[in-house]
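Summary for the steering committee. One of the milestones for this cycle was to obtain a three-dimensional model of the protein with magnesium ion bound, which we needed before selecting residues for the alanine scan. The sequence and ligand used are listed below.
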Amino acid sequence: MIPKQVSLVEVGPRDGLQNESQPVSAQQKVELIHLLQAAGLREIEATSFVSPKWVPQMADNAQVMSGIQRHEGVRYSVLTPNMKGLEAALALPLGQRPHEIVVFAAATEAFSQRNINCSIEVSIERFRPVVVAAHEAGIKVRSAVSCAMGCPYQGEVSADEVERVVMLLKSIRVDHVGIADTIGVGTPVKVQAAMERALKHYPIGEVSGHFHDTYGQALANIYACLQMGIHIFDASVAGLGGCPYAKGATGNVGTEDALFMLNGLGIDTGIDMSKLIDAAAYISMVLGRKPVSRTGSALLAKREQQRDQQRDQQRAQSVVHA
Ligand code: HMG
Ligand code: MG
C-alpha cells in the first residue's frame, strides 16, 4: 500500500541554487522561500553554512536566514559540514536559527574527497561533535548519503557501500538518513535495494529519497520508494540545481513534477500547485530561463496561453463596444 501522505522537502533554495554561476541576491533567495512557504511547503532547505571559497553562491547564508519571515509550522534546514558551519548557524538570533541541520557524507571515498575534502571516516569524525552540539541546541540532524546509486569518479556503488555509511551515521546518532542519487543514475530496483539497507537501521519516518533527475529516473525512483512505504522526498522547484562537485549532474526532481504525480495518485502533500508554479515562475524569471521541470514548463505555457486568450477576448470586446 502506498502512503496516503507525503512530505516534500524543498531543496531548491540550497541544492537548486548552490551551483548557479550567475548572482542571485539574498533578497531574491528569501523571496523564493516566501513563495515556497506560501505554496504549502512545510520543510525548506534554505541555505548552506559551507566554505564560501568552495560554494560562493551560499556565502550569504546568514542574510538569507535573517531575511525569512517565518511561517508557523514550516521547518527550515541548512547544510553544516563541520563545527564551523554549525557555530555560524547557532550564532544567529534564536528565531533565525535552523530547525534542522544536514550533514552530508558520501558512499564513495572519491566523492567524499572532492565534495568535503576528507575521507568518509574523517567526515564521520567531523560530524560527531556537530551532532552532539546540534542536539544540545534542540536541533534535529538529517544526513545525506551522496552517490548512493553511482559515483562520477568511482562508477558503480553497491548497496553494501551505502549501508556502511548509513551505519556510520547511525553510530554518531544522526536522526535521519537521506539516500541521495547525486548523479541521477539510479533505477527503481537499485533504489529499492539501497532503501532496504537504510530501513534496516532507521525507521521509515526517518528515511528519505533525494533523486537528481539527470537520466529522467527520479519519478520512477520515487514511485519505487512509495511502494515500500517511504514518504519523504527532497525536490527542487523548477527542477533547479546540481552539485558543484558532480559535473554534468542536473537538478533534483522538480517539485512540480513530484507534486503532479503525487496528486494523480491521490496522495496528500498540502501543496498548492498553482502557488508552486508562482514560485517556479519567479525563480525562472530571476535566472532568465525556463524551468527544467516538465510540469513547471507545461503549466507556465498553459498560463501564457490563457493570458493570450483573455487579451484577445478583451480586444474583441473593446472592438464591439467601439
Ligand atoms: P577545507 O578546505 O578542508 O576546510 O574544506 P578547512 O577546515 O581546512 O578550512 C579551510 C578554510 O575554509 C578556512 O578558511 C576555514 O575557516 C573555512 P581560511 O582560514 O582559509 O580563510 N571554512 C569555512 N568557512 C565557512 N563555513 C564553513 C567552513 N569550514 C571551513 N563551514 C569544507 C572543508 C567541508 C569546509 C569544504 O570542503 C566545503 O565547504 N565543502 C562544501 C561542499 C558543498 O557545499 N557541496 C555541495 C553541497 S552537498 C550536495 O549538494 C549533495 C546533496 O545535495 C546530496 C546529493 O545530491 O548527493 C546534499
Ligand atoms: Mg543534491
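Key point for the committee: Strands lie at 7-10, 43-48, 75-79, 100-106, 140-146, 176-181, 207-211, 232-235.
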